[in-house]
Design brief:
196 residues, alpha/beta, Rossmann fold, 35% helix, globular, binds flavin mononucleotide
Length: 196
């Protein structure tokens, strides 16, 4: 079984409709560790050694967050800046993350069609995620296609229930060592693969 570290960043989880539902859905999945960055570090003083240790103990790292200003809530940037140190994550002697996999799970207010050339948000989602993709390249990790929930404001209760089912399916797929992940690497969003 692959071990999954679900790092999530939501500054007001009590007010979250979508991320909180998703996390509740998968919280008890065997082999998955949920790690709430705002709860762990309300003052932003990230325990770098502890975070690095957590990374070492898992095979797949998920960064889950609502999309805020085409990016992530601030603590996730702080986490990247401090935890992915030279000599640990990259550099001639930094190979601790080599061979691990990573994935973004994001929720956007914008609808799917708005993230396209000519749409309200002008660019496809994967262009906004390039810093994650290239950070993974630098750290010799494989960046899997993202799981993206679009149009969060329009999502009905039934839609959220279906989303929870999909999110559980995703975790089952990721943790099963007998399933190769090369195939999902060819999709734009992992959501597509789950519903094929
Ligand atoms: C500060 C802030 C910035 C946001 N920026 C974006 C954005 O750049 N693109 C987008 O599609 N939605 C944006 N949204 C909408 C959120 O992504 C959306 O409300 C969130 O994904 C819903 O998830 P939740 O119910 O877990 O909070 C923003 C919302 C806030 C509060």
């Amino acid at each position: 079984m692959r071990k999954i570290l679900l790092l999530f960043a939501h500054p007001i989880l009590q007010k979250s409709r979508i991320n909180s539902a998703m996390i509740d859905a998968v919280r008890n999945v065997e082999g998955l560790t949920t790690h709430n960055l705002y709860e762990e570090y309300p003052d932003f003083f990230i325990d770098v050694k502890r975070e690095q240790q957590l990374l070492l103990e898992h095979d797949i790292i998920i960064w889950q967050h609502p999309f805020y200003w085409y990016s992530a809530p601030a603590i996730l940037k702080e986490w990247f800046d401090l935890v992915l140190e030279h000599g640990f994550a990259y550099g001639s002697e930094g190979e601790a993350l080599k061979g691990k996999m990573a994935m973004s799970v994001i929720t956007t207010g914008g609808k799917k069609e708005s993230y396209a050339t000519g749409g309200l948000n002008s660019y496809p989602i994967n262009q906004f995620l390039l810093p994650y993709e290239q950070s993974c390249n630098l750290c010799q990790m494989t960046y899997l296609p993202p799981f993206v929930v679009h149009g969060t404001h329009l999502l009905s209760e039934r839609g959220i229930d279906l989303l929870k089912v999909d999110y559980l399916k995703l975790m089952a797929l990721l943790k099963d060592k007998n399933i190769g992940l090369d195939e999902i690497d060819n999709t734009m969003f992992v959501n597509q693969y789950l519903n094929e």
